[in-house]
Every structure is written in structure tokens, then in C-alpha cells.
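For concreteness, we quote verbatim a single protein encoded this way:
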Amino acid sequence: MDRKKSSDFPQELLNLYDGYVHGRMNRRAFLDKAQSFAVGGVTAAMLFDMLKPNYAWATQVPPDDKRIVAEYAMVLSPQGNGSIKGYLVRPAGATKLPVVLVLHENRGLNPYIEDVARRVALANFIAFAPDALTSVGGYPGDDEKGLVLYRGIDNAKMRQDFLAAAMWLKSRADSTGKLGAVGFCAGGTMVNQLAVLMGAELAAGVPFYGSQPSAADTARIKAPINAQYAELDARITDGWPAFDAELTAQHVPHEGHIYKATNHGFHNDTTPRYDEAAAKEAWGHTLGWFNKYLRA
């Protein structure tokens, strides 16, 4: 299938798809509502297929790239679901390096997130991308099934799984002890939640279109935050001014970047919502933030 861009679709249809992605409607409801956009021989089912991820587009860094070493590792999580599996990627020949937790969307550890972990490793960090679906068999290779599994996991236990993964990564022998976290969508929300839970144990956070914590929780954040938002993603982006004000009041170093005319998921290069210019700029902010706060 040819790669489509967000400009190839009406914004109303993209907004409908965002509702499906975030569980506000099921596939049948999306197809019913998308029917009004099905013209010129294009069916609602065809529109759905055009909008969903195509993971063949996601590989910027091949898994067998000689510049990295990648493997899977299991982390004990006694306060969570018992254990959590993740994808560990290191630069080849690395000794001690800062570490970065890479947090997935609400589908589990899919090929896009694994590729992001490899991109982080190429920037000379040790990356670990845990799979919240470990306790229910892991990412099933299908995003629709992944969403169903994700929504069935106790959120408090999931946070504990990610916290266990963060502390395991931070305390590894090949870690300098400086930990950063980057996450997308639900993973962006989790970056903010880990910043609340970990205080100064987290050295830097970069949430992509993640929901913001409450004012009371924000008061517990110590990690410098560099938040990335899509202009058209009002449901999430409208929460930035209050978050910005609270971080300022708490004297937490932070930046917020809102990318013009972009949709939620603009960094994900497997869907039409991908915006290459915004994704590259946001990734530059991400690596710059980690270089500043994890290598000091």
C-alpha cells in the first residue's frame, strides 16, 4: 500500500480514528461513522486499512545493525504483575552509558517502539523498551488485539511494572545511574507518571502527547521535562498551559513544543498521522534533552 499523509484525509475522519485508537469507540462504530467519508469506490473498511499502522514503514534501524546489540530481558516486578519483558538495545562495544526507558503506546511493544529503542541506542544510550502486555502473553502482533489486552490490565500494577523496569535499567552494571524516559501516547502519560513516582531518581523525561498529571502530583516532579504536543490534538495539548504553570511554580526545568497542524501520533512513522518535519524536530529536542541532563 502506498504511504498516505494526513493531508490525504479529512480532519474529521482523522479525529474519528483518534477516537478508535484511544478506545472511545470500537472498530464497528468507527466503520459506521466513517461511512460518510467513503466515496469514489473507497469503502469504510478501506479507509480503516489506510489509517492503521503499517510496520513495514517503521524500520529506520534494522534489528541486525552491526552498530548495536539487541536482546530481550525479563525484569522482576513483585509489586506489579510479577515480571515484565522488554527489548534491551546497547551500542556495540559500549561500557558504561546513560540509560533511557522507551515507553510504548496503548498497543504493547510493537515494531515501531522497538525501532525507536534502536534509534536511542544509536545516539549512544542504553535503551530498554518494556512490554506492558507481558502478563497477558506479550504484544500479540496485532494492534487491535493489543488494545483489548492493554485495556484489561490493572493500571496501578502496570505503573509498578514500568517502575520496576526503570529501576532495573538504572541499576544495571553498565549504567551510569542517569536514567531518562521517553514515551508516546499512553507511554507519554507514563513518563509523566514515572516522574511523579520517582522524583529525583528520574534524571529527564520526554513525553510525546501524554496526559498531564494533576497539580498535586506535579508538585512531586523533580526531573526536567521536555514535552512534545500536536496542535490538532486538543484533548491532550489543551492540558499543557496548566502543566507548564505548575512546573514553573515548582522550579522544574522544562520545555513544551507544540507542532503546527500535526495530529496525535505525529512521531509514529507507520501511520498517515506521521509528520516527518515535526518528528525530526521533536526527536532533536529529545536527544538534546537527554544529552544535556543524562551526560552531566
